[in-house]
Design a protein that fits this description.
The chain has twelve helices and eight strands. The protein is α/β, with parallel strands linked by helices. The chain has one domain: Aldolase class I (TIM Barrel), CATH 3.20.20.70. The protein has an eight-stranded parallel β-barrel with strand order 1-2-3-4-5-6-7-8, surrounded by seven helices. Helix 1 links the parallel strand 1 and strand 2. Helix 1 packs parallel to helix 2, helix 1 runs parallel beside helix 12 and helix 7 packs parallel to helix 9. Bound molecules: 2-phosphoglycolic acid (PGA). 2-phosphoglycolic acid binds next to strand 8.
């Protein structure tokens, strides 16, 4: 069965509630009737429920940008998966390189503060399990640094991330997960990964999933590419056999650009 393309917009730390509602309303009009592509927007935590209200009844789903693995308790700053669900979210992004503390091409300069964000593959895995437990769907992100790519370690890094990030899911959970391959050096830099190469790495990810969960699940799981996806490069990337969608940052902040990418997936 062909995999349904999935385009998700990660708004990151952008848009006030008012601005987000305006963007959501504009998007809603532009994507009305598109039902051959899954579409989601992931605003900040504080805007979730209002954006959820704005897109209610439309074909746009709501996602959050991170979660914690505990249900409740004395965990200042954290947000439980059940709270995201309560706010209307269906999706949560886990393990984005920005929450992992892997900051694009400036990672070397920030070496001393990388641990601030403290995300590890094991916490990605715990967060994903906690999200599944309440019925949220996950977009699990992985990706290599420029230095890792230049050292020829891309596949090794990706395989290691995936093996821990995806460990121990039930088959039903694994079937529903979405993976986002996001080379860190391509995020927010305008340096998109070559489509052939992005497809190749997505193929490596699919192979790991096959080893972990079998051929049927590996064939069903959607793998997005993320990193400087724009309307003018979307169709080429999304036309590749192993790329089933996109996780979009900057271009998700403008309705016409985001819709251009969604159209590139059709
Ligand atoms: P970008 O971000 O589209 O701005 O490169 C992608 C992402 O971080 O998901």
């Amino acid at each position: 069965m062909p995999r349904k393309p999935f385009i998700a917009g990660n708004w990151k730390m952008n848009k006030t509630i008012c601005e987000g509602i305006a963007l959501a309303n504009e998007l809603k009009g532009l994507v009305e009737g598109i039902n051959d592509v899954d579409i989601a927007v992931c605003p900040t935590f504080v805007a979730l429920s209002k954006i959820g209200d704005a897109i209610k009844g439309s074909n746009i789903m709501l996602g959050a940008q991170d979660t914690f693995w505990k249900e409740s308790g004395a965990w200042t700053r954290q947000i439980a998966p059940g709270m995201l669900l309560d706010a209307g979210a269906k999706w949560v992004i886990i393990g984005h390189s920005e929450t992992r503390g892997r900051f694009g091409t400036v990672d070397a300069e920030l070496e001393g503060v990388l641990n601030y964000f403290g995300e590890k593959d094991i916490t990605v895995n715990m967060k994903a399990k906690a999200a599944f437990a309440v019925g949220l769907n996950t977009i699990i992100a992985c990706g290599e640094l420029l230095s890792e790519r230049e050292a020829g370690k891309t596949d090794e890094v990706i395989v290691a991330q995936m093996k821990t990030d995806l460990a121990g899911f039930s088959n039903e959970q694994a079937m529903k997960m979405v993976i986002a391959y996001e080379p860190v050096w391509a995020i927010g830099t305008g340096k998109v990964c070559d489509a052939e190469e992005a497809d190749r790495v997505c193929g490596v990810i699919r192979k790991v999933i096959k080893e972990m969960y079998g051929a049927e699940i590996a064939e069903a799981v959607r793998i997005q590419y993320g990193g400087s996806v724009k309307p003018d490069n979307a169709a080429e990337l999304l036309g590749k056999p192993n790329i089933d969608g996109a996780l979009v940052g900057g271009a998700a902040l403008k309705a016409s650009d985001f819709v251009g990418i969604i159209k590139g997936a059709r």
